[in-house]
Model the fold of this input.
Amino acid sequence: MNTIIDVEGLKDLALGLGVSAAGGGGSFIQGIEIINEIINDEFTEIELQNIQSISENDFAVVAGGIGKPDALSKPIEFADRMSVVLQQYEENYTKISGFAPIEVGPINGLLPIAIAHKNPNYCVYDCDGGGRAVPSLTTLMYDELQKADPVAYAWKTVDATPDINTYLVTSEESSFRGSEAELFFSSVMSIGAVDPSSGDKDANGAIPFACWGFDKNNQPEIPYSTYSIRKNQGRLLRDLLNIDDISLYHTALIEMAAKAEKDDYVNLSFKSVIDEVKQINHPRWTCGWIVFDSDIDANTQKRLYFVNENAALVEVTNTDDVNTFNILATGPSLIYTLIKDDEPEQIIKDTFDVSSGWFPYNTGELDTIKRLKGSEIFVGVIGSTPEEGQSPLLMVERADNFIDVQRSTFETLRTYYENGIQPYLNEFPSETQMSEVYPKPYDSMQSAKHSSKQSTKGYMFNPLIRNNWK
Done:
């Protein structure tokens, strides 16, 4: 059954995608800008296609953006660049029936809808690559496709014609794995550019791309009903924006995600105030940590580390100026934040008809989070996200890959030089301290009661949830 998204559904999606992005996938406020642009362009509704209904003649691609959240300052212009990429893909390779978002997030989730609204010949498939925003393409399900299809991407040049260059990179032997695709994107983003016409200081800090084509006979194992469930999550938050006890929202998410077997899901949450926001001036990532729940007498604090996405929730104890780290949660669990804002931007007030509330701010609006130092923050962990279909991020192999990416990233930041010194050796957990995924992933030795569905690789998946929202 296909899902219809109308104007109110778009607003719900902006909130739901913000929560479920795990702190990444694009700025929440920029997501609101996208939906307002769509609504103001005579939008009435869009029908999202069930991925299982893709026909023999259809060909879908993954379309989205990659890069630093704070580098994507003009999301609608970015959508126009994405349209150029899709046009070049069709002209040089094959016709596209529609596309799926690469990951969950306010921008990467809403851009496909914006593009399809402007280009009605395309449809949007109700699925995504992993059920949350991810730190690396190598952690996405599309990395497992076995058919050879090209990677298309665009980057901007300054004082040149054309100002948008589109490239189509093909492979004759196999599909591009995430590590291979990411090499192309990373090299482009490292070039950078300052656009004098727009003042954009990081014109290639985020780039649009299309790749990982799939059809009826060659589909990756991915979560589906992404938009349907995000819309329901957002509707719930919209009803609770001004509630004092925001933990009720977390409780509802747990029930929504694990109605069948609650004990299979993490239930971890903290309500406190923002004590500090530390941002590292890194050329590739938007990274740092948010400090909350500090206990001065015990010299402890909790830190939510972010590297584009929320990477780890950690309790830090300082003794004689040396930090020890107790890992509370890591990806691929969904670690989300809601922050109480009594003076949100006007676009938020107008869109949701509120004067204040709890909003899913993330790494795309760090200036806003810094402004809200001393404000209430709610940090929740709900394990994996509740899409229908399989939850492959909890496969042992995929979860291990996820944590390997985070371990190497943290080690890079520990030894990162800033102003000629290594100031962060004592601020990030080491690779050995980040040795495991929290919570534990499912493995093939678990009881079959956890799921009636098993992958071809022998891993067990979490229970399916369907039709528990009307």
Notes: Residues 182 and 354 are 40 Å apart (CA to CA). The longest strand covers residues 268-280.
